[in-house]
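The data layer described in this paper is built around a simple, fixed record for each protein. Because each token names a local backbone shape, the row as a whole describes the fold. We quote a single record here, exactly as it is kept in our systems:

***
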Amino acid sequence: MIGKLTGRLDYRAQDHVLIDVRGVGYIVYCSDRTMAALPGAGEAVALYTDMVVREDLMQLYGFTSLVEKEWHRLLTSVQGVGAKVSLAILGALGPDGVSRAIALGDWASVKAAKGVGPKTAQRIVLDLKDKAPGVMAMGGAVMDAMDGPGLEVVDDADPAPAAKPAGKAPPKKPSGAAAASAGALSALGNLGYGPSDAAAAVAEAAATYPDADEPELIRAALRLLAPKG
């Protein structure tokens, strides 16, 4: 399975790009948000990938972060949600937005993505709500792992190191907000709060205070979790 591609962006279409890796061209489908974040033709590029293989189909889907890739994997595990719908949701909300919407049970935000009806949006939130804390925690956990991977193609069937193309495409790290949310979630867990309650409080606090650092998010989330009355 191909888990990561790094090479030169040969050309870009409306919903996919062609990445040249050591003379082999890989067509990779991406969300609108990911497409907008990619460099121009001829420049170095790196994408985490998910490969779908069926009897009549073999396609690669690309993501700028492991968190985005994980949400794609979870979204496509929901009945009735295929890769196209998953990319539409990620394109509309981004991985952090998906985390917030699902943690808060905000199916209306999920429904705003193209091709997503109310029943599908509600099913996504219901099926994945318990998974949101784990994915939100990834925002901080992958920071160190993404500090400096080399330019390479990762393929379980071909462990040989890849040649480095000219230039360097620095990997996209999770945002500071994602790391702050992950830290706050961990702190609340250490204080004994359940994962779902902690994730919902952190998501609401992050939406209210988008520039808050980790200590500020913890305080805001604790206020939300405090008994009322």
